[in-house]
Amino acid sequence: MMRRRTTLLTGCTALALALGATACGGDPVSAGGGDKSLDGQTVTVAGVWSGSEQKNFQKVLDAFTEKTGAKTRFVSTGDNVSTVVGSKIEGGNAPDVVMVPQVGVLQQFAKKGWLKPLSGTAQQTITADYAPVWKKYGSVDGTLYGLYFKAAHKSTVWYSPEALTQAGVQPPKTYDELLKAGHTVSDSGLAAFSVAGQDGWTLTDWFENVYLSQAGPEKYDALAAHKLKWTDPTVVKALTTLGKLFKDKQLVAGGQKQALNTDFPGSVEKVFGPEPEAGMVYEGDFVAGVAHDQYGKAIGKDADFFPFPAVDGGNAPVVSGGDAAVVLKDAKNAGAGMKLLEYLATPEAASVWAKAGGFLSPNKKLDLASYGDDVTRATAKSLVGAGDSVRFDMSDQAPAAFGGTKGAGEWKLLQDFLRDPSDPKGTAAKLESAAAKAYQD
């Protein structure tokens, strides 16, 4: 299952060109210089990554081995991290480190007493080198447990430069301009947007960007924590705004019915595949990986992005997701696991994956020259430059029953709304009913 977090295709997966990575000062990165103090120890790391993501993370683990002497072993959990890790803990075979893909899961692990607070060294690095928002999302009840090593930028609209040039359209700055540009693209022969309605998570991302810009960060935080009800007028207003796009057959490729039968990879194909049907597709920076890997598009030339535009005079939104490294308290080698986290907190570790491609780091000390191409650098600059205005994916902060389950909760209700956007107020009431139950359980 393709998740909006960083499960399969987060970051521009094959964008790394032949640039060498550099550390903050611009010198070539080396994982050497360690004291080999962990010789003979093995750190087991569990996470959702597979394929190219797992291979690239292994390069980071290999650099840690070179630096410290510790061996590493990566175990891919698939999407259901909570269940897999829980069964390993019960079986007395807990991994030392888990790369947690959702704030809600990190909070769940902490409340079960599974996590070890980060060391003073790791905390000092995070405080110095990361925007405070990342410390907030890694903490539970004031204790810092998680280090956000890998991030996603989920406020990017990807487009075919050829399609927009043919229509005479420039990347829009506001949501109203976005819809106007969409109609112009449609008039030139292509639908404006390819919408991946078969995957409910993409619709939550649409909503979150509109809501963050339109209602503002304080309301966003309150709704994410369910301190604000989904029946609030700001939610109805955001749904109404989104509904204008969803119900416009000129804007959505194939209309609502086809959108509901289009998954995320299919939505990218409709813009960048051999037979384009639309000029634009909204999703995170990981769109570039599909466009490049599957369809050979040169990023920055055949495929490019513009920031998700501001809605109703608000600020342009920056919604993110990410994977947080945590150390399990009852792990056999938790000490060495914490040393790995201290390493992952450094720009040196981040640069290893930045060089390999398919990666964004929230570490503001990572030299942007470490990234292999201008588009990835621009995406990273936007993410880091947003500072504390970044907001984590709202549905990833919710209990999985509401924000992360196929065919249920927010995913299903927004699919129903895409099918029939005529009653935003009724949809808001259904969302509130589902949220209230999930947050109570």
TrEMBL record:
Residues 1-23 form the signal peptide. Belongs to the bacterial solute-binding protein 1 family. InterPro entries: Bact_solute-bd_prot1 (IPR050490), SBP (IPR006059). This is Alpha-glucoside transport system substrate-binding protein. It holds the Pfam family SBP_bac_1. PANTHER family: ARABINOSE-BINDING PROTEIN-RELATED (PTHR43649), OSMOPROTECTIVE COMPOUNDS-BINDING PROTEIN GGTB (PTHR43649:SF29). Keywords: Signal, Transport.
